[in-house]
Structure formats: C-alpha cells, structure tokens
From TrEMBL:
It is found in: Carboxysome; Cytoplasm. Belongs to the RbcX family. This is RuBisCO chaperone RbcX. Homodimer. Interacts with the exposed C-terminal peptide of RbcL via its central cleft, contacts a second RbcL monomer via its peripheral polar surface. One of its GO terms (cellular component) is cytoplasm. An RbcL-specific chaperone. The central cleft of the RbcX homodimer (RbcX2) binds the C-terminus of an RbcL monomer, stabilizing the C-terminus and probably preventing its reassociation with chaperonin GroEL-ES. At the same time the peripheral region of RbcX2 binds a second RbcL monomer, bridging the RbcL homodimers in the correct orientation. The RbcX2(2)-bound RbcL dimers then assemble into the RbcL8 core (RbcL8-(RbcX2)8). RbcS binding triggers the release of RbcX2. The homodimer has 2 functional domains, a central cleft essential for production of soluble RbcL in which the RbcL peptide binds, and a polar surface which plays a role in correct RbcL subunit arrangement. It comes from the Bacteria. Residues 97-134 are annotated as: Disordered. Residues 123-134 have a biased composition (Basic and acidic residues). One of its GO terms (molecular function) is protein folding chaperone. Keywords: Bacterial microcompartment, Carbon dioxide fixation, Carboxysome, Chaperone, Cytoplasm, Photosynthesis. The gene is rbcX.
C-alpha cells in the first residue's frame, strides 16, 4: 500500500471537488449579477466536463480567462475555510460510516430466513437458548 500515492490521489480528487463547488458559487453569483454570463458558463460546463477540475479550468482559460480566475479565487477561499476542519471530519466520518456499515452487515448476518424451516428458531449466542424458551 503506497500511502503517499493514496494521499496524492485523494488530494487531486478533493481539488477537483473544490473546483466544482467554486463553480457553483460563481454561477450563483452570476445568476444574480450577470445572467447572460451565467448562461454562457452553464453552456460551457455542459460542453466541458467538470469531473477533472484542472482540465476544466484549462479549457475555461482558453475561452473566458476572467471567469477562470474568479473560480480559482473562490476555490482557494473555500480550501482555506475547510482546511482546518477537514482532517478531523474525515477521520470521524470514516469511523462513523464504517461502524454503520458493520452494524448493518451484522444485522443482515444474524437475521434468520423465515422460509427455512429448521425448527430451531432464533438462537441467541449469549445464552444458547431458543427464543421461544424465554
């Protein structure tokens, strides 16, 4: 497991996501202040995929430099605002998601199929009693 490469790939994905969020902010601002430019940016985004934020920005720079710089500025601002919270939120989020997935899987594993008629009922491992004997 190459943790350094995983960190680089995660960072690249996060940067693309921040580009997407910055694009949403800029579009919302343009909706209110410059509807024609907002419309143009929406059409551009339909043509150019935002999936890869850096490729999207390169294409935008070729057509509308001012908007590209604006998205860069907003992306940087968002990054500065979330950077302090992100490490702890990531750790906590992964731990909670893992716990939830484990609990759901354990629940699925311990459910007895009512169609199987083994006559044993539900066994409770802590007491080795049949559910009906309680």
């Amino acid at each position: 497991m190459d943790l350094k490469q995983i960190a680089k790939d995660t960072s690249k994905t996060l940067i693309s996501y921040l580009t997407y969020q910055a694009l949403r902010v800029v579009m919302a601002q343009l909706d209110e202040t410059e509807p024609k430019r907002s419309y143009w940016l929406r059409k551009f985004t339909e043509r150019e995929s935002i999936q890869n934020g850096e490729a999207y920005l390169q294409a935008l720079f070729k057509e509308e430099q001012r908007l590209a710089f604006r998205i860069l500025t907003v992306r940087e601002h968002i990054a500065e605002q979330v950077a302090d919270y992100l490490p702890e939120m990531l750790r906590t989020g992964v731990q909670q998601a893992n716990m939830q997935q484990r609990a759901q899987q354990l629940e699925r594993m311990t459910q007895v199929d009512p169609a199987s008629d083994s006559g044993l009922g539900d066994l409770h491992p802590e007491s080795n009693e049949l559910e009906g004997d309680r």
